[in-house]
UniProtKB/TrEMBL annotation:
Keyword flag Signal: yes
Protein name: Putative lipoprotein
Pfam families given in the database record: DUF4377, META
DUF306 domain location: 82-187
Alphabetically ordered keywords of this record: Lipoprotein, Signal
Cited InterPro entries: DUF306_Meta_HslJ, DUF4377, HslJ-like_sf, Hsp_HslJ-like
Domain DUF4377, residue spans: 219-282
Signal peptide: 1-27
Amino acid sequence: MVGSRNKPTLKILLLPSMMAVSLMLSACQKEAASSENDTSQGAEAGEMTDLAVSEGLVSSMSPTSDESEPVELTAQDKLTTTLSHHRWTLVNAVDANEQPMAEFANINSQITLAFNQYQGQDTLSYSVGCNTISAGYQLKGHTLTTEEGMSTKMSCGELDLAENALNTLMHGSSEFKIDQGDHPVLTQFTDDDVTLVWNGRLTPQAKYNSKGETVFWAINSETVSCEAGRPEQCLQVKPITYNDQGIKAHEGQWRVFVGEIDGYQHDSKHEEVLRLQRYPLNSDELSETSEPTKDDTADEKYAYILDAVIESAVVE
């Protein structure tokens, strides 16, 4: 009897404890869920904040306009461009007493000067018509400083004296001025008080705004009428092809060349092979009377510049 009365009492005592434990577990679960939600929302908020900051940085780093402003060349850049875009030919040379230099008498037209860039370095080259001497140079304002040059080693005979004199004048520092124009004039004052005057001629690359294509032509000693019944005479040419070893591999057929080769003077006493640079002409440079053609080798589409005479034979 006593046992039967104690059992209900035990149940009554256990119920509050179980309810308390249940409530505590429920509270813990809610707190954990709340904590997970807060953590998740915080992470999302952090990600959104980082994204907004990142976008703000990208926005601040991005240019405000797609249009790029043109770069204005400095006076030094313009001077360097003028020098490199022309080939210079000596027209006058006088010593400290303003007397013509005997070393250059009668050969002015074959004394040349060129400014270039080679592997990122500023270089110049000059020649009296025999060896070509190349040297690095620096340009500060209108002061030109030329380093010691390197030269090919051909014997120049009567030109040796002129070559040595020019090499001495070009080495070291000199002052110069340029008179701009379609045909600019470069006046150079050397350390030896020698004055050299050079005429500039626009290079083919600068004139035609393209790199030339090398072609080889044989030139017949005899010219022919350009057109039947007309007195104008034209060259006869045929293409030559060389292999990688420099051996003649193919010769084309003779044809009439209606045009000019800049720098070439035809000699009826010689048959020659020329190395030429060929430059495509743009539409503005083509003659208005030129007929449309599908022939890519049409003479009127190109400018031809003499590079070198590589063969010359006397006609018997």
